[in-house]
Write a structure and sequence with these properties.
Largest sheet: 8 strands, mixed
Number of helices: 11
Number of strands: 22
Bound molecules: flavin-adenine dinucleotide
Shape: globular
């Protein structure tokens, strides 16, 4: 576990350990910089990145010529080129954008045209018959669809963990429970004040997600303001996932991409997200009326859902701003880079954002630090949690199953505490193993898990962040 007697002088400090911060940490570490990541929560993914739809988007529907599209395409490509090295799973489901009324049907050619403009050339309209042939359980009344063959589902939690683990195994450090509150720029260096004391660095990279504008104010009056946009989800039991193969997307409106149905990499079925503006940056609560509405929408799309239990609900906050596009910038005179407003596609684009920030660094700040890229790259392997691949419980010497809902073994839990990035909160343990995330929500296994925590680490895990 990291201790606060950590070095206080760094080349680069990254504020925020969401998926973007983790990807940026990896990139700058592999460039050869001495990197520290500071995260206010008890683990990585304490913000938007812990609660998304987990889709690796092609970018078919992104605003053409936007920074977002550029980052999504780069991120998509880099992820698919490296995921095997990390043992990160990909579920190649494809997606259908389905039209349910005449107005939506009329919008389909425009969706195909935009996809082609964005360079995703295999997107095409298909007939209703072809749609029902591939997805026979869809509700009646579809009028047409667009096929997007290359949309995928990935593991939203092991992916950023892999990025950070690789950085840490190449010498980067991190501090959890460490909120950056102030900063002073003097003599070409930053002194950042945090809840764990001051840290000095040559370059700061703001990856603070939902807090991005507040952290940006440390450098300059923030050119963007975060407007949290909540998305709620229903998670159906694993039995429901057999009802569909592809991701089912609605025709988007000007305001929202709408509610989708998708398998998860863990073998469940997801319905959501909603899109609700709220002031509160810290609490993403689910609400009964919205969940009821999601259930109705879900069962209209997939009537057989009525026979399956909802085993979990969750909500995440998108770090939206007044702008449609990402806010990537470099303030050269203050040695400051920013990845702000990464609202609804950051899981896909994180590696692309890291590439763009590295280019901004090369262009404007590379005289600030001496670094030479890592030559011999080590690829830490992530334990597999994907339902469609072999899991630890199917292998010998696993210590026995601890969580019977999600089939999590003792050896998987013990491995987490011995890993390069052990969690410091319960949510982090759940996201690394899926323990207590099944239909009983930990009712049967939590005391066994507590014993394992006591046996394996000295201090208790904080409970602040449960998901
Ligand atoms: C409902 C929903 C569905 C989505 N679906 C998808 C999808 O299917 N595919 C996809 O690609 N993307 C999706 N996204 C988008 C994706 O989740 C976000 O774009 C991404 O998580 C943003 O990551 P981030 O690192 O910028 O921000 P965050 O994840 O919010 O990370 C910022 C981190 O900074 C920390 N922090 C904040 N202030 C400070 C401070 N002062 N000091 C230290 N640390 C600080 C926070 O605790 C947090 O951990 C979805 C998002 C939501 C909410």
């Amino acid at each position: 576990m990291q201790t606060s007697n950590i070095d206080r002088e760094w080349d680069v400090i990254i504020v925020g350990g969401g998926v973007v911060g983790c990807a940026v940490m990896r990139k700058f570490t592999l460039l050869g910089a001495r990197v520290l990541l500071l995260e206010r929560g008890g683990d990585i993914l304490s913000g938007a990145s812990k609660a998304n739809s987990a889709i690796l988007h092609t970018g078919f529907d992104a605003p053409p010529a936007s920074v977002e599209l550029d980052c999504m395409k780069r991120g998509y490509e880099e992820f698919l080129s490296i995921h095997r090295h990390f043992n990160l799973p990909v579920l190649k489901t494809g997606a259908f954008v389905v039209a349910w009324d005449e107005a939506q049907l009329k919008a389909l050619p425009g969706i195909v045209e935009k996809a082609h403009q964005n360079g995703i050339m295999n997107v095409r309209e298909i007939s209703v018959d072809a749609l029902y042939q591939q997805e026979p359980n869809l509700g009646k009344g579809a009028l047409g669809a667009v096929s997007v063959p290359d949309e995928c589902v990935i593991d939203p939690w092991s992916t950023p963990l892999a990025y950070m683990t690789q950085a840490v195994e190449h010498g980067a450090k991190y501090e959890f429970h460490c909120e950056v509150t102030h900063g002073e720029f003097n003599d070409d260096r930053w002194t950042l004040t945090t809840s764990k004391g001051d840290f000095r660095t040559k370059i700061v990279i703001n990856c603070a997600g939902i807090n991005g504008d507040i952290v940006e104010n440390i450098c300059r009056p923030s050119p963007f303001t975060i407007h949290p946009r909540k998305g709620q989800f229903l998670v159906f039991d694993k039995s429901a996932a057999q009802s569909i193969d592809a991701i089912i997307l609605p025709v988007p409106t000007a305001v929202t991409k709408g509610v989708l149905i998708s398998k998860t990499i863990f073998g469940n079925l997801l319905v959501g997200p909603t899109a609700e503006e709220q002031e509160d940056r810290w609490h993403a609560a689910v609400s009964k009326p919205m969940l009821e509405d999601l259930k109705q929408q879900g069962t209209a799309l997939l009537p057989s859902l009525i026979n399956h239990a909802v085993t979990a609900t969750y909500a995440g906050l998108r770090p939206a701003t007044e702008y449609k596009d990402y806010q990537l910038s470099c303030v050269r005179e203050k040695n400051w880079l920013c990845a702000g407003g990464i609202r609804s596609t950051g899981l896909t684009s994180a590696l692309g954002i890291a590439q763009v920030l590295a280019e901004l660094f090369e262009m404007h700040l590379n005289d600030k630090i001496q670094c030479s890229p890592v030559q011999d790259i080590h690829w830490p392997k992530m334990p597999n949690l994907a339902q469609h691949l072999t899991r630890a419980y199917e292998q010998p010497d696993n210590g026995g199953v601890v969580c019977h809902c999600e089939l999590v073994t003792q050896s998987e839990i013990e491995a987490v505490f011995a890993s390069s990035v052990p969690p410091e909160c319960i949510g982090g343990l759940r996201r690394r193993t899926r323990v207590m995330m099944g239909r009983c929500n930990g009712f049967y296994c939590s005391s066994h898990v507590n014993k394992l925590i006591d046996q394996n680490i000295e201090q208790n895990l904080s409970v602040g962040d449960i998901l």
